[in-house]
Amino acid sequence: MPSASGIRAGAACVELFVKDNKLVRGLQAASAGLKALGASIQAVGTRLAGLGVTLAVPFLGAAKLFADMRSDLLDMSQRTGVAVEALSELRYASEQSGSGAEDLEKGLRTMSRNIIEAARGSAEARRNLARLGLTVADLSGLSPDQQFEMIADRLPRIQNPAHRATIALEIFGKTGANLLPLLSGGADGIRELRRQARQLGLTMSSEDAEAAEAFGDSLDTLWKTIKRLGFAIGAALVPTLHQIAQLVAALVARISDWLDRNRELVAIAAGVVAALTAIGVALLLLGPAITAMGAAIGLVNFAISAAAIAVKLLGVALAFLLSPIGLVIAVVGGLAAAVLLATDEGHQALTSLGQGFEQLSSIASTTWQGIRDAIAAGDLAGAMEVAWRGIQVAWETGLAAIS
Q: Do the Cβ atoms of 209 and 68 come closer than 8 Å?
């Protein structure tokens, strides 16, 4: 029977073999390399998929625009009897003249109806054509777009603008006024605009319109299928949502019944809420008031402190004046004032002192002007020298005045 030490030794040998075996190391390296390669390929695939989606969006938008535009033209062609190619060119011409596709379609349909009524013997319809110098025979056998051009060729010949607008309304209906800018150019103007549409590549073929119609039908079918999927999901969720709605309704009913049986508690709760709201509003208003009161108290405290300091200073001044030294100084000051004000020598001294201060003012003004001139000239050193000389002169003049 193998011992525990033998088992451990065998396990160590197996572990050493697994770690040092070249085949095992090679397999591990290959596994790591494959994992890294797989991650790189996945990252590249993610980027390519995102790029594809980004590039596909404009193409899908263009396809949708193609389907809408061509299918609209095909529907309009079927309603008016005008070929898709001619209708696309006439629509461009009408848009260039300020009207639109809707005005063009209504005008063409009304025109065709009036021509048919004239062919059936309508006196009014024939009279409207006769005003243009046209008969039913002139228009029969022509396509609706050719009839439109022939009428447009005759309409500008009517000189009176009011009569021209009236005939346009009679033949093309209510949209005749909107089509007048297009019709005023005559048949030549309409043909020129149609030629521009062909040069710009705006002429649309019947094949493209039919393909767009088929593509639009496919898109409609797709959206209906997607909506049906949403309906199916909703139908699957309806039982669960119905149960949830019933539970919520039962819960709300119980709460309503409890509130109905405990109206006093509801009133108390409402009172508490109202009290809390009132207290909050009161505190909201009381806060600024307390702040203002604190500021006012601070001002009062400052005023009291200032008054106390003034009283203290007044007391010190009175104590000083009532002391022996203060009395002596007051007597000397009074004698000096009496000498200055009551004697000729005092008057001369005050006059001399005033003249000295006038000299100081003149010196200061002259010095400042010199400093400004030096700074304006860009001579900072000169400005400093002028300032220093001015200070010296003012010092000497002041000492002489005081002496």
A: no
